[in-house]
Every structure is written in C-alpha cells, then in structure tokens.
C-alpha cells in the first residue's frame, strides 16, 4: 500500500548488459499501449512529458498518483465481524477517490497478496468491484486482506482513508446449502429419576 506522497522526480531508463549500457534510439510516443488485453488510455496531462534526444525518460509526479479517500461495502456485508469492511464472497465494494481510469480494465483492486475485487464499473473518481475469494489458494476467512488499488499507466494509489480499518477486507464464511440424509439411528436414552423423600430412587422397570 502507498500511504504517503513523495516529490516529483524524473529518471532516465537504463539497460545494461554486464557493464555495457544499451544504446537508446529515442522515438516519438506511439500513442496507445495494450497490456494483458487492456488498451491503456493516456494518463492525466497535469504535467508535461519529459523530453530528451538521447534517453527515454520516466516522470513520477504527485499529480499523476491515484488516491483512495474511502471504501464502503455496498452488498454482501455481514455483522459477524466487528471490522467495518467484512462480507461474504461476492460482496460489492465502492471505492472513491481520484486519478482512477474510466477504462475499467486499467483499474486493479487487490485484496491481500493473492486475491482481487473485480472492477465492474469505473470513473475517474469511483470504482465498483466484486470480491473474488476463489483461486488456487482460496481467501482465508476472517483474516485481514489489505485493499490496494493500482491504475495501469499511472501506478499504485495512495491510501488516504480516514479510518485505516476501512482499507482492509475480512471474508466471512457463508453456508449456502445443506444435504441431510434420512437414516435410522439406534440410540439408548437414559432419564434421571428424582429421588423419593426417603432418599431411595424408585426401581427401574425390568
């Protein structure tokens, strides 16, 4: 998670083969870029692109950094946990902030190290997503899963929520069906008999 801003900085791309630097043939920006099947839209124009004739430059700017101001659970919530963001698999989250992409596939919401909240709709200030606790390693129940947002082509979002507990998701287990088979059971039942006034219990029938 990103929890604080930093200063703007610009760095040159460096590629080395052992101690020999690679030559860089700087060309004009080609426009759209695709990643993992997602066509990335350009980021904000709040800062000018760096210009160089001999090296590719990369600028990291505060104004380009996405920011999360609040996370609420919109559906599938549970009161089984005292934590504010707890719910069942398939729960819906609404994430508000700034610097998101209105191109849904550019926004990635992570829950812990191995799971995601699948983005279903997005704007530059709000994301709606559905918790997906499946996978090779199912999400453990009632274990803290830190919520993190990454906007492809912009970077990791600053988690600027007022309550740190709202930046964590807790999965609550849910029973959706049962399967009970009808079988005969032979059980011996014993009944305690009250004592008589003389302190002698009545005889059990033979």
Structure description:
The protein has 206 residues and is mostly beta strands. The protein contains no helices and 15 strands. The chain has strands at residues 9-12, 16-17, 20-21, 33-35, 38-40, 57-60, 67-77, 86-98, 107-111, 115-122, 126-132, 145-151, 155-156, 158-159, 168-171. β10 (115-122) and β11 form a beta hairpin. The protein is elongated, with a radius of gyration of 29 Å.
- What structural category do the secondary elements indicate? mainly beta
Distance between the termini: 74 Å
> What amount of the residues lies in strands?
35-45%
> DSSP helix count?
0
The major pleated sheet works out as: 6 strands, mixed, barrel
Secondary-structure element sequence?
EEEEEEEEEEEEEEE
The count of DSSP E runs of length 2 or more, i.e. the number of strands, is 15
Q: Globular, elongated, flat, extended or rod-shaped: what is the shape?
A: elongated
Cα-atom radius of gyration: 29 Å
Mean pLDDT across all amino acids: 83
For the largest sheet, list the strands in their spatial order.
8-11-10-9-12-15
């Amino acid at each position: 998670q990103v929890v604080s801003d930093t200063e703007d900085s610009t760095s040159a791309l460096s590629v080395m083969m052992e101690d020999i630097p690679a030559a860089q043939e700087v060309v004009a920006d080609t426009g759209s870029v695709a990643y993992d099947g997602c066509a990335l839209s350009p980021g904000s124009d709040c800062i000018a692109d760096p210009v160089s004739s001999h090296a590719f430059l990369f600028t990291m700017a505060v104004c380009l950094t996405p920011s999360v101001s609040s996370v609420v659970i919109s559906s599938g919530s549970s009161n089984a946990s005292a934590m504010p963001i707890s719910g069942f698999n398939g729960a819906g989250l609404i994430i508000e902030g700034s610097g998101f992409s209105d191109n849904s596939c550019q926004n990635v919401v992570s829950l812990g190290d191995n799971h995601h909240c699948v983005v279903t709709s997005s704007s530059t200030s709000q994301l709606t997503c559905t918790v997906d606790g499946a996978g090779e390693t199912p999400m453990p129940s009632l274990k803290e899963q830190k919520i993190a947002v990454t906007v492809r082509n912009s970077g990791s979002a600053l988690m600027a929520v007022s309550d740190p507990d709202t930046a964590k998701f807790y999965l609550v287990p849910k029973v959706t069906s049962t399967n009970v088979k009808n079988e005969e059971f032979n059980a011996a039942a014993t009944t305690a008999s009250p004592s008589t006034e003389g302190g002698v219990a009545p005889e059990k029938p033979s």
